[in-house]
Amino acid sequence: MAEQLIPVEELNEEQARAELERLSAAIAHHDALYHGEDKPEVSDADYDALKRRNDAIEERFPGLVRTDSPSQRVGAAPAGIFSQVTHARPMLSLDNTFSDEDVRDFVNSVYRFLGQLPDGSIAFTAEPKIDGLSMSLRYENRKLVTGATRGDGTTGENVTANIRTIGEIPDTLPDDAPDVVEVRGEVYMAKSDFMALNAQMEADGKQTYVNPRNTAAGSLRQLDAKVTASRKLKFFAYAWGEMSEMPADTQLGMVKTFERWGFPINPLMSRLSSVEAILDHYHQIGLKRPDLDYDIDGVVYKVDRLDLQQRLGFRSRSPRWATAHKFPAEQAFTTIETIDIQVGRTGALTPVARLTPITVGGVVVTNATLHNADYILGIGNNGERIREEGHDIRIGDTVIVQRAGDVIPQVLDVVLEKRKSDAEPYVFPSKCPVCGSHAVREKNEKTGKLDSVTRCTGGFICKAQAKEHLKHFVSRNAFDIEGLGTKQIDFFFDSEDPAITVRTAPDIFTLRERQEATSLTKLENIEGFGRVSVRKLFDAIDARRSIALNRFIYALGIRHVGETTAKLLARSYGSYAAFEEGMKQAGSLHGEAWNELNAIDGIGEVVATAIVEFFKEERNRDVIHRLLEKVTPEDAEAPQASDSPVAGKTVVFTGSLEKFTRDEAKARAESLGAKVSGSVSKKTDILVAGPGAGSKLSKAQELGIQTMDEDEWLALIAP
Fold it and tell me: Whole-model pTM above 0.85?
């Protein structure tokens, strides 16, 4: 990790709430890059560490679990390129284990849950974890009808046409197969095919690809199925979704049935009964890993008997009967040639090491993240040393680079014996390298600690921030303007021609009229454009003059406001006018409007402050008001189920719920048209209290709010 954080066991409730908020935003960002854009920017190890910390805090503070918690979601929302498919059964992710002891704990937890002693009577399957793209194949009356990506676990992308180009996937099933079958597995590209493709790309003078996983994902998302067909994708089957009949009663039996139906299955899959046998199989697969013609990043263990899987059931986003045992990250040695500073959309100054090229895990690495100023110095936020000897990182150092399936690896440590005698400590800039504004580390007024990130104070006068903000504005989950990607934004932003320049979001929507009003520079005459492409671009811009409220809010680029938070805000306020007025009223950071913002379940004080401060800035308000002259945010749809006894009411859940998980309770309430809040106020209609309910229950009783236990709640919402 980039910094030493307060240990979970030392967090107080306020610190835990802020940390869960930070972790939720960070993990959502990385999920979107990995699952939605196939462009991860952190290592698997760093990502897993974020999730483990989130889970540990939630376990210690169950009352603080957020609606947008990483423990409550899978993957990322599907991209807008393809039509969407709602999975008949969710495609959930697996919990991860990282050590032999973790595996022992997993096996023992299975026995404990089932009320048995670990006597070896329960068998597990163990198979390689393929580093590819999860896929669900639906057959009806034994014919393939749909191929869909995992997406966010509930909704994926319809890539059926491309799936049909994969020769290993059968179009029809045998006559004895059930009427409805969903076979799930992994689409991947063999290492040999990847190397051959890159050799051809290089011979053609084209840019080569980074790794097989991203190449497979990108190939499957081609609009032209002929391109997909040319990429020689492959498939391994290992799971299932909806089945009208179950052809076997064990995990291994189901997978063998898939093989009989014509699907490839992994030959290294085994059925094992003891922890020792499971771990030995893991280590044997690890030894074979370099020689396999496909990338793997671990081994997956599953309880073999399906009736036991049924009894074990699921946590909020993962099964209790399965886990993934991850391999350690791959490492190599190289030299830091220089350190560059990149400025992001929120002004964050991120140091990046430019490396002497080195191959790590089959990928040539030239850049690595150095996280922040503290990481370079070798200290954490509390002053702790984060490297064994407390040394810093300097230009010219020989370093250990770690990569675990990521695009931008990290510098793990320094080989001090090879440090040059004249190597000087790196001085982190105090001014933005782009605009020259002061770069500062903000202080948390409550904890008195400095933020780990150094930020440019220039705001929109900083070209780097302004440009990155535009790229965010047109991104897939914001305005998603076809034909206006990173390359085009760079061109329009850097242009000095008033008929072409785009420096703020409103400029996008005046581009057509400026072009039509000028007799000088015409886009269609500029290399890289053309009459047809310009017309399509203008049409795509016009198609976004009306947009969903949650997308509009997300596109504004407010710090800490991701897709999930934008949806919460849109649903809570209903219209943009109400949202902006609410933020204006909440500007004092106290009073009814402020309390209402903080009461939204999933919106904490850190996020609320960031939103309010964003709207206090006059330049931000000016950009938004000019944008509203060209764009209309649609009002959020009102919840359905108006005949429900809780429709339109605000509900708060508190205490340790026993009849259902907090996630289930919230989802059910919202499906009935209720609004779920995280705190009690005068606007609360119902408080549902489980065992251990404390201050929220007391406050509800003081305010005369209707309170009930779980049984009374279930009776109220019963059909």
Answer: no
Take residue 337 and report the two structure tokens written for it. Answer: 């040639």
- 3-class DSSP assignment, residue 474: coil
Sort residue 205 into left (φ over 0), alpha (ψ -120 to 50) or beta.
left
How many CB atoms sit inside 10 A of residue 294's CB? 23
Domain spanning 548-634: CATH superfamily? 5' to 3' exonuclease, C-terminal subdomain (1.10.150.20)
Rounded to whole angstroms, the Cα distance separating 326 from 98 reads: 5
Region at 436 (left for phi over 0; alpha for psi -120 to 50; beta for the rest): left
Structure token digits, residue 503: 């420096």
> Residue 616's closest CA among 415, 459, 404?
459
Query: Is 487 part of the annotated catalytic residue set?
Result: no
Check if the beta carbon of residue 263 is closer than 8 Å to that of residue 171: no
348: left (phi over 0), alpha (psi -120 to 50) or beta: beta
Instruction: Find the largest Cα–Cα distance for the chain.
Output: 84
CATH 3.40.50.10190 fits 650-717, yes or no: yes
Q: Kindly report, residue by residue over 165-206, the tens digit of the pLDDT.
A: 898 999 999 999 999 999 999 999 998 888 888 888 778 777
Spot the catalytic one: 39, 51, 129, 191.
Answer: 129
Write out pLDDT tens, residues 482-500: 889 888 999 999 998 888 9
